[in-house]
Amino acid sequence: MDIVAHALWTTVAGTAVRHRVRQRVHLGWAVFWGVFPDVFSFAIPAAVRIWWYASGTTRSLMPDAHSPQRFQYVWQLYYCSHSMLVFAAVFGVVWVVAGRPVLELLGWGLHILIDIFTHRGIFAIHFLWPVSSYGFDGMRWENPWFLAVNYGMLMVVLGWMWAKARRTPEYGKPAPIR
């Protein structure tokens, strides 16, 4: 799924979690973790390509078939940041260190769950990496019909949340810690 949709779905989920737990959930950090796997995987090569383009090293922002394979490490970053096993290990370590579950990190897990079903081909998520390279061949998030349904659902859900917040002033605010 695209990064904007990940941010919006993480906002929806984070707002829902805020109402169910007696712990603060910082939506900004939840959204950060919700987009983290893609930023971690693609920010460095994107910045390098932009620099090469701006400096005249390349004529296109897109890699071509004649370019050397300079970014092979990106696949390892992609597999690592989109692995449920890596996420679970990090979540567990942070829980032990913090002495409580850091719920904002669940945005990362949500990202992986969504991507399992919305990626295919070379971008199929190896969600059990490094134990397995199995990738479920889901639907393509770039399909126009999927984009329309996804953003339509986001508009409905966010509209409902907005209407509820207008009727109930405490909606959207963190639950009090007792």
Mean pLDDT equals 88
Radius of gyration in whole Å, from Cα? Answer: 19 Å
> What is the H/E order?
HHHHHH
- The backbone outline, from C-alpha atoms, is globular
Short key terms for the protein model shown above:
178 residues, mainly alpha
Question: Mind explaining what this structure looks like?
Answer:
This protein is mostly helical and 178 residues long. The chain has one domain (3-167). Helix content is 61%, strand content 0%. It contains six helices and no strands. It starts with a helix and ends in an 11-residue tail after the last helix. The mean pLDDT is 88.
Sum this structure up briefly:
The chain is mainly alpha-helical and 178 residues long.
